[in-house]
Amino acid sequence: MHNREESALTGVGVVILKELRDYLGSTRMKLLIGLILITALASTYGAATRIRSLVGEDPFFLLGLFTVAGNPVPSFVSFLGFLVPLAAIALGFDAINSEYSRRTLSRVLSQPIYRDALITGKAIAAVSAIAIALLALWLLILGGGMLFFGIPPTGEQVARAFMFYLMTVLYAAIWVMLAMFFSVLFKQPATSALAALGVWLLITVFWPIIASVAAGALADPGTLAYAKIQQGISRLSPNTIYGEVTLALLNPTTRTLGPVVFSQLEGAILGTPLPLGVSLLLIWPHFSGLAGATLLLFAGVYVVFQRQEVRA
Amino acid sequence: MQDTQENYTEKNTQPPPAPPEAVIQTEGLTKTYPNGTVAVNNLNLTIRKGEVYGLLGPNGSGKTTTILMLIGLTEATGGSVKVAGYNPLRNPLAVKRQVAYMPDSVGFYNELTAAENLDYTARLAQVPGDEIGPRIDESLEKMGLSGVKNRRVGTFSRGMRQRLALAEVLVKHPQIVILDEPTQGLDPESAHEFLLFIRSLRDDGMTVLLSSHLLDQVQQVCDRVGLFFEGRLILEGTVDELSSQVIGNHFQVQISAVSDNREEFHRKLSGLEGVEDVKIESHRLDEVYRSYLAKEREHAQS
């Protein structure tokens, strides 16, 4: 092993700026933002008309914009759980292999930078592009909600909504890393896109089914063991984790995310909201899990890319 | 006092001019792939400051692998390399700052313009911010691409991409230029033009290492050449040295002549002292094409 003499991240800023500019101007980004915007408008409008009647009673009515499903449109949160991975895959699936197929890699790597800078810069740029788009969307919904209801949100509501935004970005990051991992693994962009979309389908559509089937095989339905096994398996999916996180953050009355036995509820005043700090404690393991998985995937991207031959 | 005598004699006998310093030096450089293929075998190469060195040989003889090891994009399995005084594995950034590399199949970001493509690599190469614009303009001008500065590279022809790649090399203001198959895919006339550009790099004080499988094409621009075969350097020297070394003091003369009687010509030339063989041929098609174009141009000007 050789010790490196200069920072491994020399030039990372240049890569981030270039990639970010490419992303923000690209057609695929415009398509994705359009798609998310349409679903956001539909779902929040549905939610807004439903919660209008509750404005006087619920101190957290504004958060309902994200979580309430107006018939027949699903809630904004469930849309995000489904669409954010798609957006992340669309941005990450050809991050590295397109540099090979365009034959730009050796030209770029012959400049005085390490490979670390290229891969880190691309990852940061893709996550930032999604973060920027989501931030715009988040402001649009909160601002629209204020106009619609005519009541400014409380500090706690804004803080909860902001935590929700950060967790959504983290949820996007894990999918960006997954897509980039496939882009390093497969030389053809079509192959890596297909692989990433396969995982996406498995996790968002089939995983809940797999979880209940597997739990059914291991325990009798209706028992506590069954519920625990089912939840344990389904929590391997980042989609489940994200759903639980949004539930805890946007529904302050959520006291627990796992199965509860009756004796544990003794003395609890049901329906009272938890303070933000306690809700955050509730999702701390989820946050650690998502962050850890993101870093693990990024490490995988890193290792595979560092060992690859520059010559395609 | 004895020293004076010695000093005196030393001053009188002029030492031979020291050869310019070596900017690229390899010793026993070897690259073996995991599957056992030996791509480069015990290569000892010395390239001196200010020369144009041609790495010549058929496809797959280890030229590109050698180049990749010189700039630290591939790790050698044996031997040592020094480029501009640095080890490309230990100090890759220092080496890459001095060396500009043009790969054998150049690709650009098609959705960006020529200037944007150069801007990106110039920033990566840490060219000072206020110099980037002027340097890009200057090198595009030199390569005759000023007119398409703001056009997307996706619309460029093969020859234009090749020239853009050389423009990128110029933007970096490197000490050493490494070109892998620079004339690949170019028509003979563009290739010739391209080689003249490469020659002009040397006149600007750069050291040039180029690889090619078109031996006849690059011999005009190389000060020294090394001939590669199956990963080994089998011959090295100036073109004249090599031909006298291998073929002896034989040489070829080309004569262009106008006559109706070819046999007569043949007989007269064969009668000259030392002539071994005389071949009389019609012009090659590329020469016909070139002289036709030259005539057309003359015609258009008058």
3D structure, described in words:
The complex is a heterodimer of chains A (312) and B (302). Chain A is mostly helical and 312 residues long. Chain A has one domain (12-306). Helix content of chain A is 71%, strand content 0%. Chain A is globular and about 65 Å long. The mean pLDDT of chain A is 90. With 302 residues, chain B is an alpha/beta fold. Chain B folds into two domains: 22-247, Rossmann fold (3-Layer(aba) Sandwich), CATH 3.40.50; 262-301, no CATH class. A six-stranded mixed β-sheet of chain B has the order 5-6-7-3-8-9, sandwiched between helices. A three-stranded antiparallel β-sheet of chain B has the order 2-1-4, with helices on one face. The longest helix of chain B is centred in the last third of the chain and has 17 residues, at 285-301. Chain B starts with a helix and ends with a helix. The model of chain B is unreliable at 1-11 (pLDDT under 50). Chain A binds chain B through residues 2-3, 5-6, 10-11, 14-15, 18, 22, 102-104, 106-114, 309-311, and chain B through 64, 68, 71, 73-74, 89-94, 96-97, 99-103, 105-111, 120-121, 123-126, 165, 168.
What is the structure about, briefly put?
The complex is a heterodimer of chains A (312) and B (302). Chain A has twelve helices and no strands. By secondary structure, chain A is mainly α.
Taking strands numbered 1, 2, ... along the chain, how are they ordered across the largest sheet of chain B? 5-6-7-3-8-9
Order of helical and strand elements of chain A: HHHHHHHHHHHH
Number of helical elements of chain A: 12
State which percent range the strand residues of chain A make up: under 5%
Helix content of chain B: 25-40%
Largest sheet of chain B: 6 strands, mixed
Report the structural category of chain B.
Answer: alpha/beta
Task: Give the SSE string of chain B.
Answer: HEEEHEHEHHHEHEHEEHHH
Mean pLDDT of chain A: 90
Coarse morphology of chain A: globular
Distance between the termini of chain A: 25 Å
Low-confidence segments of chain B: 1-11
Based on CA inertia axes, which overall geometry of chain B fits?
globular
**What's the domain count of chain A?**
1
Q: For the CA atoms, what is the radius of gyration of chain B? A: 24 Å
User: Helix tally of chain B?
Assistant: 11
